[in-house]
């Protein structure tokens, strides 16, 4: 029986050298050392041996088992290493191949203009204020001196959700909300950038567009302060040689009111097709805050005064970059956007 154990050991070691897969290795282990394996079968025959032969035979079988177990561990490690190397080779990346180029994005011209406007006004000491795009009729109209049935409401064709709730037609409600919130603090010096909504849609109008409005409230604020702020803004936005002019106008929330023109960027004021031969281009509306609006904000118009202005970001962007159709700003055409 000792010779049989040695035979099984030698044959198994020889067979192990030819195994090339982990599955085959496991099958061979079960065949020899499993419950029905050849070496296990010999152990069951120990009962036929004498008491003196049993420990000697048991020692021989255990030594053979130890040799085979060690051989299996070594062969398993070798096969695992071979499998890992094959996996590495299969997943190898050829870094010498050229990469796949990607299209780089660009900042949208409207975003660029809004950020530039914010930087200009922040540099002049303004804070940025925000408010809801879904607004009440009170803040969008009544608090701005536009009571119900006021004829000036027809100037803004609005998107109403209910009789008292609408999409805001201007960012002016943020001015009233801010005055209510900070009263009686002075000065109030804010700009209000954001989206607004009106029923317009053509080459120069959009049902959704962007505005930046400004408000300054303090003691002794004058029209000349308004002009100085807007002149500084125009020169930083359109060039140091720009001039502005104020033309009398009407807005319910300011008195007196003025339209603001900037000297043409293309002809410098000489007259061209862009400025329609006048040398001037309208860019925004402005004026001194109406006393009723100050009262609605919580301030006493006998003690403080203020000015306000508002401009469309799309119009500023079109003038700055020479864009003739506002709809290009919302088409998301890469050929257009890549120019910026």
From TrEMBL:
HAMAP family: Phe_tRNA_synth_alpha1. Residues 111-319 form the Aminoacyl-transfer RNA synthetases class-II family profile domain. GO terms for biological process: phenylalanyl-tRNA aminoacylation. Its cofactor is Mg(2+). Mg(2+) binds at residue 255. This is Phenylalanine--tRNA ligase alpha subunit. One of its GO terms (molecular function) is tRNA binding. The gene is pheS. It catalyses: tRNA(Phe) + L-phenylalanine + ATP = L-phenylalanyl-tRNA(Phe) + AMP + diphosphate + H(+). It is an enzyme of class 6 (ligase). Keywords: Aminoacyl-tRNA synthetase, ATP-binding, Cytoplasm, Ligase, Magnesium, Metal-binding, Nucleotide-binding, Protein biosynthesis. InterPro entries: aa-tRNA-synth_II, aa-tRNA-synth_II/BPL/LPL, Phe-tRNA-synth_IIc_asu, Phe-tRNA_ligase_II_N, Phe_tRNA_ligase_alpha1_bac, Phenylalanyl-tRNA_Synthase, tRNA-bd_arm.
């Amino acid at each position: 029986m000792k010779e049989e154990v040695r035979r099984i050991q030698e044959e198994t070691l020889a067979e192990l050298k030819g195994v090339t897969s982990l599955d085959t290795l496991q099958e061979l282990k079960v065949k020899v050392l499993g419950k029905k394996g050849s070496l296990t079968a010999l152990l069951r025959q120990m009962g036929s041996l004498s008491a003196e032969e049993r420990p000697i035979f048991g020692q021989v079988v255990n030594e053979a088992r130890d040799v085979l177990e060690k051989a299996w561990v070594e062969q398993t490690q070798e096969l695992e290493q071979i499998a890992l190397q094959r996996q590495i080779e299969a997943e190898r990346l050829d870094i010498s191949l050229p990469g796949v180029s990607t299209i780089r994005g660009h900042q949208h011209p409207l975003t660029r203009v809004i950020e530039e406007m914010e930087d200009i006004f922040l540099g002049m000491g303004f804070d940025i204020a925000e408010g809801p795009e879904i607004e009440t009729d009170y803040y969008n109209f009544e608090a701005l001196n536009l009571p119900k049935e006021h004829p000036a409401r027809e100037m803004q064709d609005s998107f109403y959700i209910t009789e008292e709730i609408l999409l805001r037609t201007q960012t002016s409600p943020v001015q009233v909300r801010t005055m209510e919130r900070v009263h009686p603090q002075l000065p109030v010096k804010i700009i209000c950038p954001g989206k607004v909504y009106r029923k317009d849609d053509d080459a120069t109008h959009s049902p959704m567009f962007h505005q930046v409005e400004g408000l300054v409230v303090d003691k002794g604020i004058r029209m000349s302060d308004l002009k100085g702020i807007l002149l500084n803004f125009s020169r930083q936005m359109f060039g140091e040689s720009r001039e502005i002019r104020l033309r009398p106008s009407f807005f319910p929330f300011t008195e007196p009111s003025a339209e603001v023109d900037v000297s043409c960027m293309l002809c410098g004021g000489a007259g061209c097709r862009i400025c329609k031969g006048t040398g001037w281009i309208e860019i925004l509306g402005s004026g001194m805050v109406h006393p009723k609006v100050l009262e609605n904000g919580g301030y006493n118009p006998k003690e403080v005064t203020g000015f306000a202005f508002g401009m469309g970001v799309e119009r500023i962007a079109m003038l700055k970059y020479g864009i003739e159709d506002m709809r290009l700003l919302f088409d998301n055409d890469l050929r257009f956007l890549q120019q910026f």
